[in-house]
Amino acid sequence: MNRKTFLKKSLYSAVGLGLATGLYSWQIEPFWLEFVKHKMPIRNLPNNLVGKTLMQISDIHVGNKFDYNYLIESFKKAKEFNPDFVMYTGDFVDYENEEQFAQLETVLKHTVTGTLGTVGVLGNHDYGKDWVEPEVANKIVSILEANNITILRNQETELNGLNIIGIDDYWGLNFDPKKATQNFKKDQPYIALCHNPDVCDLDVWNNYDSWILSGHTHGGQVKPPFLKPPILPVKNKRYSSGKITLDNNRTLYINRALGCLWQVRFNVRPEITIFTLEKA
Asked: How far is CA 72 from the centre of its chain?
């Protein structure tokens, strides 16, 4: 093989590989859902909750950027696990106009709910354009609650012996984490929901010392092999995805998102997380 032929074949191979990678990143991985399973040890967990399952669903982004029928199919698969608790960690829509309300209602006809409780928090995209439209957030909350998802807006609730703190979105108009954590009781079992993991670095936690479930980052959506994601919408670039140990005995888990803002993923599959509760 002479040099000219070698270079030509190398060029064709590189172009072919690039096209295959682009097609995979556009048409395959964004819809290649992974159910990720972890144990969740919680201090003071009641005996009757040991072995129960908690499902985290985050960032479904109902809108026009991708075919949201994928979300419906994903919800159908999730229901087969029959979770005891379901926690939604924000960004229910990718808001452009009121069309997203109807789209969200269509998807939520297949809502995944827990046998022992279903709660969630809002994300920045749930506050409309530039995150400054409270009427959009209020409408989304009304749709969610009509479909059996209780939204916590800087509130705490108790579900069959498990306490849930829900912090409203960091970039939204209703962010008040100190209100959410003011009644934290150290001798009871807790989980906190907080869409944006950057909130973990703020001095607002009132000695909270348990699990925090977040989303927001999508794991970067594109991650070169053996490298960190080049783009993350957080100040703390440590907060990409997965389980992260924090100070004061806190454990952060960042879900990689079920939906996407743009239909492209590489080396960051969409995720629904299933935790099994156990005593710490």
From this structure: 16
Cα–Cα separations (whole angstroms), residue 263 to 108, 232, 239: 21, 16, 22
Place of tokens 């140990």: 245
Q: Report pLDDT digits (tens) over 98-145.
A: 999 999 999 999 999 999 999 999 999 999 999 999 999 999 999 999
Query: Edge to edge, what strands does the sheet with 211-214 contain?
Result: 155-159, 162-167, 190-194, 211-214, 251-254, 242-245
b/e string for 67-102 if b means 16 or more Cβ within 10 A? ebebbeebbeebeeeebbbbbbbbbbbbbeeeebbe
DSSP-derived secondary structure letter, 168: P
Q: Can you read off the two tokens belonging to residue 152?
A: 């916590």
| Res 16 pLDDT > 50 | no
Give yes or no for a contact between 30 and 257, defined as CB atoms under 8 angstroms apart. Answer: no
CA–CA distances in Å: residue 271 to residues 58, 162, 208: 8, 24, 26
User: Under DSSP, is residue 244 helix (H, G, I), strand (E, B) or coil?
Assistant: strand
d(CA 185, CA 207): 9
> What pLDDT, in 10s, does the model give residues 140-189?
999 999 999 999 999 999 999 999 999 999 999 999 999 999 999 999 99
Alpha-carbon span 200 to 253, nearest angstrom = 11
Question: CA 175 to CA 198: how far, in whole Å?
Answer: 13
Is the pLDDT reported for residue 211 higher than 90? yes
